[in-house]
Protein backbone atom coordinates (compact mmCIF):
# COMPACT_ATOMS: atom_id res chain seq x y z
CA UNK A 1 0.00 0.00 0.00
CA UNK A 2 2.87 2.29 0.89
CA UNK A 3 4.38 1.58 -2.54
CA UNK A 4 1.22 2.51 -4.32
CA UNK A 5 0.72 5.81 -2.48
CA UNK A 6 4.31 7.00 -2.80
CA UNK A 7 4.62 6.07 -6.48
CA UNK A 8 1.26 7.65 -7.35
CA UNK A 9 2.08 10.84 -5.46
CA UNK A 10 5.49 11.15 -7.06
CA UNK A 11 4.02 10.63 -10.52
CA UNK A 12 1.43 13.32 -9.79
CA UNK A 13 4.29 15.58 -8.74
CA UNK A 14 5.98 14.87 -12.06
CA UNK A 15 2.82 15.98 -13.89
CA UNK A 16 2.77 19.19 -11.83
CA UNK A 17 6.41 19.77 -12.76
CA UNK A 18 5.64 19.13 -16.43
CA UNK A 19 2.77 21.61 -16.50
CA UNK A 20 4.65 24.29 -14.57
CA UNK A 21 7.69 23.98 -16.84
CA UNK A 22 5.68 24.29 -20.08
CA UNK A 23 6.91 27.89 -20.53
CA UNK A 24 10.46 26.53 -20.94
CA UNK A 25 9.38 24.78 -24.12
CA UNK A 26 11.89 22.21 -25.29
CA UNK A 27 14.27 23.06 -22.47
CA UNK A 28 12.01 21.44 -19.92
CA UNK A 29 13.07 17.96 -18.76
CA UNK A 30 10.80 15.03 -19.49
CA UNK A 31 9.85 14.72 -15.80
CA UNK A 32 7.19 12.04 -16.10
CA UNK A 33 9.41 9.70 -18.06
CA UNK A 34 12.38 10.20 -15.73
CA UNK A 35 10.20 9.43 -12.72
CA UNK A 36 8.76 6.37 -14.41
CA UNK A 37 12.19 5.07 -15.43
CA UNK A 38 13.41 5.48 -11.86
CA UNK A 39 10.51 3.53 -10.39
CA UNK A 40 10.92 0.73 -12.94
CA UNK A 41 14.63 0.48 -12.15
CA UNK A 42 14.16 0.62 -8.38
CA UNK A 43 11.03 -1.48 -7.96
CA UNK A 44 10.40 -3.46 -11.15
CA UNK A 45 7.69 -5.47 -9.41
CA UNK A 46 5.44 -2.55 -8.59
CA UNK A 47 4.98 -1.04 -12.05
CA UNK A 48 3.77 -3.25 -14.85
CA UNK A 49 3.56 -2.68 -18.57
CA UNK A 50 -0.13 -1.79 -18.30
CA UNK A 51 0.64 0.93 -15.77
CA UNK A 52 3.34 2.31 -18.08
CA UNK A 53 0.80 2.33 -20.90
CA UNK A 54 -1.78 4.16 -18.81
CA UNK A 55 0.79 6.75 -17.76
CA UNK A 56 1.52 7.17 -21.46
CA UNK A 57 -2.16 7.90 -22.14
CA UNK A 58 -2.07 10.43 -19.29
CA UNK A 59 0.96 12.08 -20.91
CA UNK A 60 -0.92 12.24 -24.20
CA UNK A 61 -3.72 14.15 -22.51
CA UNK A 62 -1.33 16.46 -20.66
CA UNK A 63 0.69 17.25 -23.79
CA UNK A 64 -2.33 17.29 -26.09
CA UNK A 65 -0.89 14.78 -28.56
CA UNK A 66 -2.91 12.09 -30.31
CA UNK A 67 -4.11 9.54 -27.75
CA UNK A 68 -1.85 6.49 -27.91
CA UNK A 69 1.36 7.95 -29.31
CA UNK A 70 3.09 8.38 -25.99
CA UNK A 71 1.37 5.28 -24.61
CA UNK A 72 2.99 3.18 -27.34
CA UNK A 73 6.45 4.62 -26.74
CA UNK A 74 6.15 4.45 -22.95
CA UNK A 75 5.20 0.78 -22.93
CA UNK A 76 7.98 -0.03 -25.40
CA UNK A 77 10.66 1.70 -23.32
CA UNK A 78 9.22 0.20 -20.11
CA UNK A 79 9.56 -3.26 -21.67
CA UNK A 80 13.19 -2.65 -22.66
CA UNK A 81 14.02 -1.45 -19.15
CA UNK A 82 12.21 -4.42 -17.58
CA UNK A 83 14.39 -6.72 -19.61
CA UNK A 84 17.62 -5.00 -18.66
CA UNK A 85 17.10 -3.37 -15.26
CA UNK A 86 19.64 -5.70 -13.68
CA UNK A 87 22.36 -4.35 -15.95
CA UNK A 88 21.28 -0.70 -15.77
CA UNK A 89 21.13 -0.73 -11.97
CA UNK A 90 24.85 -1.35 -11.66
CA UNK A 91 25.90 1.48 -13.94
CA UNK A 92 27.17 4.68 -12.34
CA UNK A 93 24.87 7.67 -12.29
CA UNK A 94 26.82 9.30 -15.14
CA UNK A 95 26.54 6.20 -17.31
CA UNK A 96 22.84 5.99 -16.54
CA UNK A 97 22.52 9.62 -17.62
CA UNK A 98 24.13 8.83 -20.96
CA UNK A 99 21.83 5.85 -21.39
CA UNK A 100 18.82 8.06 -20.59
CA UNK A 101 20.03 10.51 -23.24
CA UNK A 102 20.11 7.72 -25.81
CA UNK A 103 16.74 6.26 -24.81
CA UNK A 104 14.98 9.62 -24.84
CA UNK A 105 16.57 10.62 -28.14
CA UNK A 106 15.19 7.46 -29.70
CA UNK A 107 11.86 8.19 -28.03
CA UNK A 108 11.72 11.70 -29.54
CA UNK A 109 12.54 10.32 -32.96
CA UNK A 110 9.86 7.63 -32.67
CA UNK A 111 7.21 10.17 -31.66
CA UNK A 112 8.29 12.45 -34.48
CA UNK A 113 8.02 9.56 -36.90
CA UNK A 114 4.51 8.59 -35.76
CA UNK A 115 3.40 12.25 -35.84
CA UNK A 116 4.84 12.63 -39.31
CA UNK A 117 2.85 9.64 -40.58
CA UNK A 118 -0.30 11.43 -39.42
CA UNK A 119 0.87 14.76 -40.77
CA UNK A 120 0.72 16.42 -37.36
CA UNK A 121 4.43 16.89 -36.75
CA UNK A 122 6.13 20.24 -36.60
CA UNK A 123 9.77 19.34 -36.74
CA UNK A 124 12.49 21.56 -35.33
CA UNK A 125 15.99 20.52 -34.34
CA UNK A 126 15.44 22.14 -30.94
CA UNK A 127 13.15 19.16 -30.21
CA UNK A 128 16.30 17.28 -29.21
CA UNK A 129 17.06 19.63 -26.34
CA UNK A 130 14.54 17.71 -24.25
CA UNK A 131 16.58 14.45 -24.04
CA UNK A 132 19.74 16.40 -23.22
CA UNK A 133 18.12 18.46 -20.47
CA UNK A 134 16.41 15.31 -19.15
CA UNK A 135 19.76 13.48 -18.99
CA UNK A 136 21.22 16.41 -17.05
CA UNK A 137 18.23 16.34 -14.68
CA UNK A 138 18.53 12.57 -14.13
CA UNK A 139 20.91 12.74 -11.10
CA UNK A 140 18.53 15.21 -9.44
CA UNK A 141 15.53 12.93 -10.00
CA UNK A 142 17.53 9.87 -9.02
CA UNK A 143 18.73 11.18 -5.66
CA UNK A 144 15.42 12.84 -4.82
CA UNK A 145 13.44 9.66 -5.46
CA UNK A 146 16.03 7.51 -3.71
CA UNK A 147 15.67 9.59 -0.54
CA UNK A 148 11.90 9.27 -0.89
CA UNK A 149 12.14 5.53 -1.44
CA UNK A 150 14.42 4.92 1.55
CA UNK A 151 12.40 7.14 3.84
CA UNK A 152 9.10 5.41 3.08
CA UNK A 153 10.68 2.01 2.53
CA UNK A 154 9.26 1.38 -0.93
CA UNK A 155 10.29 -2.04 -2.20
CA UNK B 1 14.77 -21.34 -15.87
CA UNK B 2 11.48 -22.52 -17.27
CA UNK B 3 9.61 -20.14 -15.02
CA UNK B 4 11.79 -17.25 -16.10
CA UNK B 5 11.11 -18.09 -19.73
CA UNK B 6 7.37 -18.18 -19.15
CA UNK B 7 7.44 -14.86 -17.42
CA UNK B 8 9.40 -13.23 -20.19
CA UNK B 9 7.09 -14.45 -22.94
CA UNK B 10 4.11 -13.25 -20.92
CA UNK B 11 5.67 -9.80 -20.80
CA UNK B 12 6.34 -9.98 -24.48
CA UNK B 13 2.75 -10.81 -25.32
CA UNK B 14 1.59 -7.97 -23.06
CA UNK B 15 3.83 -5.65 -25.04
CA UNK B 16 2.42 -6.86 -28.34
CA UNK B 17 -1.11 -6.42 -26.99
CA UNK B 18 -0.34 -2.88 -25.79
CA UNK B 19 1.28 -2.11 -29.13
CA UNK B 20 -1.91 -2.93 -31.02
CA UNK B 21 -4.03 -1.22 -28.35
CA UNK B 22 -1.99 1.96 -28.87
CA UNK B 23 -2.37 1.77 -32.62
CA UNK B 24 -6.09 1.28 -32.09
CA UNK B 25 -6.40 4.36 -29.89
CA UNK B 26 -4.27 6.41 -32.29
CA UNK B 27 -6.54 5.47 -35.19
CA UNK B 28 -9.72 6.06 -33.17
CA UNK B 29 -8.49 9.44 -31.94
CA UNK B 30 -6.89 10.69 -35.12
CA UNK B 31 -9.14 9.34 -37.80
CA UNK B 32 -12.56 9.19 -36.20
CA UNK B 33 -12.39 11.49 -33.15
CA UNK B 34 -14.19 8.73 -31.26
CA UNK B 35 -12.53 8.69 -27.86
CA UNK B 36 -12.40 12.36 -26.99
CA UNK B 37 -14.43 11.61 -23.86
CA UNK B 38 -11.45 9.69 -22.41
CA UNK B 39 -9.45 12.85 -22.92
CA UNK B 40 -12.16 14.95 -21.26
CA UNK B 41 -12.40 12.64 -18.26
CA UNK B 42 -8.63 12.63 -17.66
CA UNK B 43 -8.52 16.38 -18.24
CA UNK B 44 -11.23 17.01 -15.66
CA UNK B 45 -9.99 14.58 -13.04
CA UNK B 46 -6.24 15.17 -13.20
CA UNK B 47 -5.07 17.99 -15.46
CA UNK B 48 -7.61 20.64 -14.44
CA UNK B 49 -6.93 20.40 -10.67
CA UNK B 50 -3.18 20.43 -11.33
CA UNK B 51 -3.54 23.47 -13.58
CA UNK B 52 -5.49 25.18 -10.84
CA UNK B 53 -2.98 24.24 -8.13
CA UNK B 54 0.05 25.23 -10.17
CA UNK B 55 -1.62 28.55 -10.90
CA UNK B 56 -2.23 29.32 -7.21
CA UNK B 57 1.16 30.92 -6.41
CA UNK B 58 0.91 33.21 -9.42
CA UNK B 59 -2.63 34.40 -8.68
CA UNK B 60 -1.68 34.85 -5.01
CA UNK B 61 1.25 37.09 -5.94
CA UNK B 62 -0.96 39.03 -8.34
CA UNK B 63 -3.47 39.61 -5.56
CA UNK B 64 -0.76 40.82 -3.21
CA UNK B 65 0.49 43.27 -5.82
CA UNK B 66 -3.04 44.51 -6.43
CA UNK B 67 -3.69 45.08 -2.75
CA UNK B 68 -0.40 46.82 -2.15
CA UNK B 69 -0.88 49.36 -4.92
CA UNK B 70 -1.79 52.52 -3.05
CA UNK B 71 -5.05 54.40 -3.05
CA UNK B 72 -3.76 57.35 -5.06
CA UNK B 73 -2.97 55.07 -7.98
CA UNK B 74 -6.44 53.62 -7.75
CA UNK B 75 -8.02 57.07 -7.68
CA UNK B 76 -6.02 58.04 -10.72
CA UNK B 77 -7.11 54.88 -12.49
CA UNK B 78 -10.71 55.63 -11.54
CA UNK B 79 -10.43 59.11 -13.02
CA UNK B 80 -9.01 57.78 -16.26
CA UNK B 81 -11.69 55.12 -16.45
CA UNK B 82 -14.47 57.64 -15.83
CA UNK B 83 -13.16 59.83 -18.62
CA UNK B 84 -12.93 56.82 -20.89
CA UNK B 85 -16.44 55.77 -19.93
CA UNK B 86 -17.88 59.15 -20.97
CA UNK B 87 -15.95 59.03 -24.21
CA UNK B 88 -17.17 55.52 -24.90
CA UNK B 89 -20.77 56.46 -24.15
CA UNK B 90 -20.59 59.24 -26.71
CA UNK B 91 -19.09 56.81 -29.20
CA UNK B 92 -21.84 54.33 -28.40
CA UNK B 93 -24.53 56.84 -29.32
CA UNK B 94 -22.89 57.35 -32.68
CA UNK B 95 -22.57 53.62 -33.09
CA UNK B 96 -26.21 53.03 -32.22
CA UNK B 97 -27.38 55.35 -34.95
CA UNK B 98 -24.90 53.75 -37.32
CA UNK B 99 -26.16 50.30 -36.40
CA UNK B 100 -29.73 51.28 -37.13
CA UNK B 101 -28.67 52.65 -40.45
CA UNK B 102 -26.69 49.50 -41.12
CA UNK B 103 -29.62 47.19 -40.33
CA UNK B 104 -31.84 49.27 -42.58
CA UNK B 105 -29.35 48.99 -45.40
CA UNK B 106 -28.96 45.28 -44.77
CA UNK B 107 -32.69 44.82 -44.98
CA UNK B 108 -32.58 46.42 -48.38
CA UNK B 109 -29.73 44.21 -49.54
CA UNK B 110 -31.24 41.18 -47.73
CA UNK B 111 -28.02 40.24 -45.97
CA UNK B 112 -28.20 38.88 -42.47
CA UNK B 113 -27.39 41.09 -39.52
CA UNK B 114 -24.22 40.02 -37.74
CA UNK B 115 -23.80 41.34 -34.23
CA UNK B 116 -22.84 39.29 -31.21
CA UNK B 117 -25.55 39.25 -28.59
CA UNK B 118 -24.23 36.77 -26.09
CA UNK B 119 -20.70 36.86 -24.79
CA UNK B 120 -19.02 35.03 -21.94
CA UNK B 121 -15.94 36.26 -20.13
CA UNK B 122 -13.60 33.41 -19.22
CA UNK B 123 -10.44 33.28 -17.13
CA UNK B 124 -7.16 31.91 -18.42
CA UNK B 125 -5.93 29.24 -16.00
CA UNK B 126 -2.73 28.29 -17.79
CA UNK B 127 -0.94 30.56 -20.21
CA UNK B 128 1.10 27.80 -21.82
CA UNK B 129 -0.92 24.61 -21.82
CA UNK B 130 1.21 22.79 -24.37
CA UNK B 131 4.86 21.94 -24.81
CA UNK B 132 5.26 23.06 -28.39
CA UNK B 133 2.11 24.94 -29.33
CA UNK B 134 0.72 28.31 -28.31
CA UNK B 135 -2.30 27.02 -26.45
CA UNK B 136 -3.92 28.40 -23.31
CA UNK B 137 -6.46 26.68 -21.09
CA UNK B 138 -9.56 28.48 -19.82
CA UNK B 139 -11.92 27.81 -16.93
CA UNK B 140 -15.14 27.09 -18.86
CA UNK B 141 -15.97 23.87 -20.62
CA UNK B 142 -18.80 21.73 -21.94
CA UNK B 143 -20.71 22.47 -18.76
CA UNK B 144 -21.27 25.98 -20.14
CA UNK B 145 -21.83 24.76 -23.68
CA UNK B 146 -18.40 25.63 -25.02
CA UNK B 147 -17.87 23.90 -28.37
CA UNK B 148 -14.90 23.11 -30.60
CA UNK B 149 -14.24 25.86 -33.13
CA UNK B 150 -15.83 28.59 -31.02
CA UNK B 151 -14.25 31.96 -31.72
CA UNK B 152 -12.35 33.56 -28.85
CA UNK B 153 -11.79 37.32 -28.82
CA UNK B 154 -10.39 39.98 -26.53
CA UNK B 155 -11.63 43.51 -26.05
CA UNK B 156 -9.68 44.74 -29.08
CA UNK B 157 -9.68 41.85 -31.49
CA UNK B 158 -9.34 38.19 -32.34
CA UNK B 159 -7.41 35.90 -29.98
CA UNK B 160 -8.01 32.36 -31.19
CA UNK B 161 -10.41 29.45 -31.29
CA UNK B 162 -11.36 26.51 -29.08
CA UNK B 163 -9.60 23.27 -30.05
CA UNK B 164 -10.36 20.97 -27.15
CA UNK B 165 -13.15 20.86 -24.61
CA UNK B 166 -13.47 19.03 -21.30
CA UNK B 167 -16.30 19.29 -18.80
CA UNK B 168 -14.97 22.20 -16.76
CA UNK B 169 -12.10 23.52 -18.86
CA UNK B 170 -11.09 23.89 -22.48
CA UNK B 171 -8.12 24.81 -24.60
CA UNK B 172 -7.74 27.75 -26.96
CA UNK B 173 -5.23 27.86 -29.79
CA UNK B 174 -3.87 31.35 -30.27
CA UNK B 175 -3.60 33.12 -33.61
CA UNK B 176 0.15 33.58 -33.07
CA UNK B 177 0.75 29.81 -33.25
CA UNK B 178 2.98 29.22 -36.33
CA UNK B 179 0.89 26.31 -37.57
CA UNK B 180 -2.37 28.26 -37.32
CA UNK B 181 -3.77 30.24 -40.26
CA UNK B 182 -6.72 32.63 -40.47
CA UNK B 183 -8.63 33.54 -43.64
CA UNK B 184 -8.53 37.33 -43.50
CA UNK B 185 -9.35 40.40 -45.53
CA UNK B 186 -7.73 43.81 -45.93
CA UNK B 187 -10.38 46.26 -44.79
CA UNK B 188 -9.32 49.05 -47.15
CA UNK B 189 -9.28 47.04 -50.38
CA UNK B 190 -11.33 43.94 -49.63
CA UNK B 191 -8.47 41.74 -50.75
CA UNK B 192 -8.43 38.21 -49.29
CA UNK B 193 -5.25 36.99 -47.62
CA UNK B 194 -4.14 34.21 -45.27
CA UNK B 195 -2.65 35.31 -41.97
CA UNK B 196 -0.32 32.88 -40.21
CA UNK B 197 1.31 32.96 -36.78
CA UNK B 198 5.03 33.41 -36.41
CA UNK B 199 7.75 31.95 -34.21
CA UNK B 200 8.32 35.44 -32.82
CA UNK B 201 5.61 36.00 -30.29
CA UNK B 202 3.35 38.97 -30.92
CA UNK B 203 3.69 38.99 -34.69
CA UNK B 204 1.62 37.61 -37.54
CA UNK B 205 2.72 37.26 -41.14
CA UNK B 206 1.21 36.83 -44.58
CA UNK B 207 3.33 34.16 -46.18
CA UNK B 208 2.08 34.08 -49.72
CA UNK B 209 1.25 37.56 -50.95
CA UNK B 210 2.18 38.45 -54.50
CA UNK B 211 4.84 41.11 -55.08
CA UNK B 212 2.60 43.90 -56.29
CA UNK B 213 -0.17 43.42 -53.72
CA UNK B 214 -1.97 46.58 -52.64
CA UNK B 215 -1.25 46.57 -48.92
CA UNK B 216 0.39 49.49 -47.14
CA UNK B 217 1.61 49.97 -43.60
CA UNK B 218 -1.27 50.92 -41.35
CA UNK B 219 -3.86 48.79 -43.12
CA UNK B 220 -6.27 47.07 -40.80
CA UNK B 221 -6.76 43.34 -41.25
CA UNK B 222 -9.89 41.52 -40.10
CA UNK B 223 -11.35 38.05 -40.52
CA UNK B 224 -13.08 37.37 -43.82
CA UNK B 225 -15.39 34.58 -42.72
CA UNK B 226 -14.33 32.39 -45.62
CA UNK B 227 -14.02 28.65 -44.92
CA UNK B 228 -16.56 29.11 -42.09
CA UNK B 229 -13.93 29.02 -39.36
CA UNK B 230 -14.15 32.50 -37.94
CA UNK B 231 -17.00 34.96 -37.86
CA UNK B 232 -16.52 37.72 -40.43
CA UNK B 233 -15.32 41.22 -39.53
CA UNK B 234 -13.46 40.49 -36.31
CA UNK B 235 -10.45 42.82 -36.28
CA UNK B 236 -7.12 40.97 -36.20
CA UNK B 237 -4.33 43.52 -36.41
CA UNK B 238 -2.54 46.29 -38.21
CA UNK B 239 0.12 46.01 -40.92
CA UNK B 240 3.44 47.23 -39.57
CA UNK B 241 5.92 46.24 -42.25
CA UNK B 242 5.97 45.20 -45.86
CA UNK B 243 9.12 44.03 -47.57
CA UNK B 244 9.11 43.23 -51.25
CA UNK B 245 12.17 41.21 -52.02
CA UNK B 246 12.68 40.72 -55.75
CA UNK B 247 14.70 37.55 -55.14
CA UNK B 248 11.72 35.87 -53.54
CA UNK B 249 8.45 35.11 -55.21
CA UNK B 250 6.31 36.63 -52.51
CA UNK B 251 6.41 39.81 -50.46
CA UNK B 252 6.56 39.52 -46.71
CA UNK B 253 3.94 41.33 -44.71
CA UNK B 254 4.10 41.62 -40.95
CA UNK B 255 1.00 42.25 -38.88
CA UNK B 256 0.84 43.31 -35.26
CA UNK B 257 -2.23 41.84 -33.55
CA UNK B 258 -4.50 44.24 -31.66
CA UNK B 259 -4.47 41.99 -28.63
CA UNK B 260 -1.42 41.06 -26.60
CA UNK B 261 -2.18 37.45 -27.48
CA UNK B 262 -0.65 35.05 -24.98
CA UNK B 263 -0.40 37.48 -22.09
CA UNK B 264 -4.08 37.91 -21.38
CA UNK B 265 -5.79 36.83 -18.19
CA UNK B 266 -9.35 37.17 -19.45
CA UNK B 267 -10.84 36.20 -22.79
CA UNK B 268 -14.29 36.54 -24.34
CA UNK B 269 -16.23 33.74 -26.01
CA UNK B 270 -18.78 34.67 -28.64
CA UNK B 271 -21.81 32.51 -29.21
CA UNK B 272 -23.61 33.66 -32.30
CA UNK B 273 -21.30 31.88 -34.72
CA UNK B 274 -20.84 28.17 -35.16
CA UNK B 275 -18.33 26.78 -37.66
CA UNK B 276 -20.16 24.81 -40.34
CA UNK B 277 -17.74 21.95 -40.38
CA UNK B 278 -17.50 20.61 -36.86
CA UNK B 279 -14.85 17.95 -37.52
CA UNK B 280 -11.25 18.96 -36.79
CA UNK B 281 -10.04 20.04 -40.21
Compose a concise summary of this entry.
With 155 residues, chain A is mainly α.
Helix content of chain A: over 70%
CATH topology of the largest domain in chain B: Thrombin, subunit H
Shape of chain A: globular
Under the CATH scheme, which architecture of the largest domain in chain B would be assigned?
Answer: Beta Barrel
Total beta strands of chain B: 12
Biggest contact: A-B, 37 and 40 residues
* Rg of chain B: 24 Å
C-alpha termini separation of chain A: 11 Å
Estimate percent helicity of chain B: 25-40%
Q: Ranges of chain A with pLDDT <50 over ≥5 residues?
A: none
Q: Please, how many helices of chain A?
A: 6
Give the low-pLDDT segments of chain B.
Answer: none
- Percentage of β-strand residues of chain A: under 5%
Counted beta strands of chain A: 0
Rg of chain A over CA atoms, rounded to whole Å, is: 15 Å
Strand content of chain B: 25-35%
Tally of helical segments of chain B = 3
Distance between the termini of chain B: 54 Å
What distinguishing features does this structure have?
heterodimer; A: 155 residues; mainly alpha; globular; B: 281 residues; alpha+beta; Thrombin, subunit H; 3 domains; six-stranded antiparallel barrel; six-stranded antiparallel beta barrel; 3 helices; 36% helix
Secondary structure layout plus pairing:
The complex is a heterodimer of chains A (155) and B (281).
Chain A: H1 2-20, H2 31-42, H3 49-63, H4 69-89, H5 93-118, H6 129-152
Chain B: H1 2-31, H2 36-68, H3 71-109, E1 119-126, E2 135-138, E3 151-153, E4 158-165, E5 170-174, E6 181-186, E7 192-197, E8 204-209, E9 220-223, E10 235-243, E11 251-257, E12 266-270
Antiparallel strand pairs in B: 1-2, 1-12, 2-5, 3-4, 3-12, 4-5, 6-7, 6-9, 7-8, 8-11, 9-10, 10-11
Overview of this structure, please?
The complex is a heterodimer of chains A (155) and B (281). Chain A has a domain at 2-47 and 92-152. Chain A is mainly α and 155 residues long. Chain A has helices spanning 2-20, 31-42, 49-63, 69-89, 93-118, 129-152. The model of chain A has no long low-confidence stretch (mean pLDDT 89). Helix content of chain A is 75%, strand content 0%. Chain B is α+β, with helices and mostly antiparallel strands and 281 residues long. Chain B has 3 domains: 2-68, no CATH class; 73-113; 118-275, Rod shape-determining protein MreC, domain 1 (Thrombin, subunit H), CATH 2.40.10. Chain B is 36% helix and 25% strand. Chain B is built from 3 helices and 12 strands. Chain B has helices at 2-31, 36-68, 71-109, and strands at 119-126, 135-138, 151-153, 158-165, 170-174, 181-186, 192-197, 204-209, 220-223, 235-243, 251-257, 266-270. In chain B, the strands form 2 sheets. Chain B has a 6-stranded antiparallel barrel with strand order 1-2-5-4-3-12.
